[in-house]
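#onboarding

Welcome to the new folks! Below is a worked example of what a typical request in this channel looks like: someone posts a single protein sequence, and someone else replies with the predicted structure as tokens. Don't worry about understanding the tokens yet, we'll cover that in week two.

Example request:
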Amino acid sequence: MADENGRTRQMWHLLEPLHAVLYYAPEVFAEAGALGYDTGERWPSYFAWRAAPLGTPDAAEATAAFHSFSPRMVAEHVPAAWAVAGPDELLEARARAVGEAYRAVLGDETASGPELAEAAVLARRAAEAADTEGRALAAANAALPWPEEPHRALWHAATVLREHRGDGHLFALADAGLDPVESLVSFAAIGAAPVEVFSSRGWSDAEWAAARDRLAVRGLLAADGTATEAGRALRARVERRTDELAAAPWRALGEPDTARLAELLGPLWVAALGSGLLPRETTLGIGRV
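Example response:
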């Protein structure tokens, strides 16, 4: 596949908003509220929805899987989430919520249409080609039954693929010698998103400052907190390695079908972004890096 890393990154950019609807759509918050979760902010249901495929992980297990969150923040929500609803109940509610959210965001005609159904088939082929060994969140989602409805199947495929990429990203960060908070600090230092955006991960000012000091000692950050040439080079290697580790599903799908899927996803991507549900800037740095 020509420019394999570029195509791999493009597919992530197209699929990520389709996955992220889960964390912002009012239909999802309605389901969370019905289960008994506090919906005054998104984190109680976020941790419950995302961790449910893992079963009932404790705080340490969830922290390791999610990586970028402060252990304190994770411990505020896990394992307390399982006292509200069990994983089976959560997964059933998650599937309902996604179906309702997709119909609201995409419209009934699109959600039930032949082009979305074609996209779901192609995305499923890619997701089923993903090697999930050693990738906790990807493996847990891949082990779930496939939904019958195409719009829910598309979301499920998008989720398996984005968690597959995310799990691989953790390998790339570890190879670069970046711990969770250093990963965020170094990403902010190259302008991926404003520092304030990364505060959503729960690290204290002292922890952030200590991570900056550690990176400065390594020659990766300048005195003003921006990345040095070495720091930018390291982050470029991390992103390149992440793309390489996420490429196998698209290699298996093949360039013609991957290109067709990208074409089919375009209008859905526009609808997701145009819904106004998703934040303009996130810790993923999509659109800025």
